[in-house]
Amino acid sequence: MKVKDVMTKDVQAVTVPGSRNEAMELIRELEVSALPVLNENTKKFVGMIRLRDFFEDPDENQLGMLVNRDVVTVGPEQSLEDAARIMLREGVRRLSVVKGSKLEGIITVRDILRRAIAERKKETPVSECMQNSVTTIWERTPLKVALEILHLSGERALPVLDDEAHPVGMIGDEDIIAVSEVKTEEKTELMRGRSETEKWAWDSEDRIYITKRSLTPPDKEVREVMSSDLITITKRTSASKCAELMRENEVHQVPVLSGSKLIGMISDEDLLKALTE
């Protein structure tokens, strides 16, 4: 089975030259966390832009300065095993499929996992491949703080705990994007300084007006926005059954419980490793 057999061919992309505003609004509209970037004139693949890039460099407006150009790609004729190995080695959930310098499509962990489920059954319990160290968020955490925790943890979604430390939901980038507003901020900066003796020159100072648009979470708590339809498993659940649950419910990670206590997490990347070994 080759990459071209399971990849998504109709891919939305942004172009350079372009602005952060255009890319940010498309990411928000599609409710995704990353988009491929193409050269506007040649349509050649340039790289990827991630949601977190906007937050890490809030003052940069040129898309060309924000795009990640050093990204790993895969060819349409390569095998699914090749794509899986690249994803696991690089720690990424998606790969741009490029032939020459043309974007042919996108392949994700979910695409490969779906094929792996169809071809083989893995009865290995998730206890052998789950993550025992888990970053969590309290349900009363403000969304702005939750967004920072997500970025610092490097995760796209995290389990939410109530006052009794019981898991009650999941919060991720997409949940926050869906309720965030694109706000416009304008500030004025002087292009040159002046001394105390130059008060007469105030009206002739050169000024630059900077307009910046940013994605701003509302003043809400995590519990108001989180996904509360929590899909959970136990440590004895098989890797294949867990993969089927992820596919059916369109989630990429699942909390592992012992009774009502959170004891770990398992992601589709963890399952990809287990199912392709």
From TrEMBL:
PROSITE patterns referenced in this protein's UniProt entry, alphabetically: CBS (PS51371)
Domain CBS intervals: 7-65, 67-123, 130-189, 226-277
Highest taxon, organism lineage: Archaea
TM region(s), chain numbering: none
Family annotation (Pfam families): CBS
Gene3D superfamilies according to UniProt: CBS-domain
InterPro entries: CBS_dom (IPR000644), CBS_dom_sf (IPR046342), Diverse_CBS-Domain (IPR051257)
Keywords noted in UniProt: CBS domain
SUPFAM superfamilies in the record: CBS-domain pair
Protein name stated in the entry: CBS domain-containing protein
